[in-house]
């Protein structure tokens, strides 16, 4: 089970959260063709490595936030509030285990 | 050497010292006519049918670890074809047909056992959904029938049908042709049969790059065992498909989740069938060794860790103990996870990709084992001829652009 540091409430058990998919997925509002719409709805990075993902602290503050996690080791590298840019990880070059 | 009563008798007189290796372990050739990436059941079946039915002998299966060591060796071996839509019934029904005489065709006992798969309904929604499946299946000629709780208990005597439990059983659907098979034997049987036809099986050979020529078409692969040239690649890499396809610059509608299973200590036969419950996240059957094989749900988040959180397995055991009270004191021997590649509509993707010469068979999610022979058979046609078999044509990658999805979320039967 993950221990997830909510940026509002601090570290809490995974049971308090709902996973909400890949973060930073945006759509160009001027483009409305099938290809772009299909990619927006369905295409995902699904990286073997570091993923930026959304969580919602459903049993706590109820707020969405973003998280950087290594999908090989499941180590959480950073969490940050929605709307903030994805942090760079040059200081935490922790290897996967 | 063919397996037969005669070879068995001969080997027993020779103290079983004369059995040959089941498949060759050759060095990679500099080039092949086609390469299958992924040595699980689906990849090995694909290679076998390409050799057996399409005459392609200069082909190879590359596997980063050992064959059958991924989801083929990690699933709960359930076989059924009670899916909702006609496209799915054709695909899973095709596999069901091939299962019937697979041991004879491969000359390898895959221990296919049509012992019946029963899916439990615990609420009105389940009843409506399962009855819809029963009617759709029967119209399509697929066997599936509706049972009362008493009939369900008669079919599986250890089932608890009390009305005073948290999620009482109020009905069940039963597919009698469903059942189980020995997962390792499926991989080994296909590997042995493919190798005998000249297919090279390259284990411990991880793909590190997919190279393309000036026109953008596939030119070969880089691996941990050297460079191999080829014009055709079939990617059958299950949970690692997104990772492999990113080497060719292709993004996919896939997400990879850990799916867990566990087995108990072996006991005498107590369970004559497979029982599944989607609503309370549990399913169980008994292996021929006597272990109760239990499947859990997926974790909530994308991961390649092949483990998963213990709370997921605990949740499933809560449900198992309520449905089957007499197994409560059994100890669990092992638990593990496999990485399953889930599509938005819970149906697989089998077909072309935007890259010429690169073909895809993925997205089997939580239920690929049952389809192994059918998946390999139609994908062999796809890779060998370049065009889809009529059965896999609807399962194209393009359906996520056109919107012609094949929604099998209810039939997938694993909570996710």
Automatic annotation (TrEMBL), chain A:
One of its GO terms (biological process) is tetrahydrofolate metabolic process. One of its GO terms (molecular function) is sarcosine oxidase activity. The lineage of its organism: Bacteria, Pseudomonadati, Pseudomonadota, Alphaproteobacteria, Hyphomicrobiales. It comes from Lichenifustis flavocetrariae. This is Sarcosine oxidase subunit delta. InterPro entries: SoxD, SoxD_sf.
TrEMBL record, chain B:
Signal peptide: none annotated. Residues 35-78 form the Rhodanese domain. Its EC number is 1.5.3.24. PROSITE patterns: RHODANESE_3. The lineage of its organism: Bacteria, Pseudomonadati, Pseudomonadota, Alphaproteobacteria, Hyphomicrobiales. GO terms for biological process: tetrahydrofolate metabolic process. It catalyses: sarcosine + O2 + H2O = formaldehyde + glycine + H2O2; sarcosine + (6S)-5,6,7,8-tetrahydrofolate + O2 = (6R)-5,10-methylene-5,6,7,8-tetrahydrofolate + glycine + H2O2. It comes from Lichenifustis flavocetrariae. One of its GO terms (molecular function) is nucleotide binding. It is an enzyme of class 1 (oxidoreductase). It comes from the Bacteria. It is found in: Cytoplasm. GO terms for cellular component: cytoplasm. Its cofactor is FAD; FMN. InterPro entries: FAD-dep_OxRdtase, FAD/NAD-bd_sf, Rhodanese-like_dom, SoxB. NCBIfam families: soxB. Keywords: Cytoplasm, FAD, Flavoprotein, FMN, Nucleotide-binding, Oxidoreductase. Belongs to the SoxB family. This is Sarcosine oxidase subunit beta.
